[in-house]
Write a structure and sequence with these properties.
mainly alpha, about 0% strand, rod-shaped
Length: about 45
């Protein structure tokens, strides 16, 4: 997903590679963090 995001941003909008990689990583990290939190919450014995 990050690669496709970067290709689109670089090709269509002309952003630098570093800027696109940073922005894509920030967007993707949020989803990874939320998934990890949901998994930990699901493993907790209530």
């Amino acid at each position: 997903m990050v690669v496709e995001f970067a290709k689109n941003k670089r090709g269509l909008e002309g952003f630098r590679t570093f800027d696109v990689a940073t922005e894509g990583a920030k967007l993707r990290f949020r989803a990874v963090r939320m998934t990890a939190l949901a998994e930990v919450a699901g493993l907790m014995p209530w």
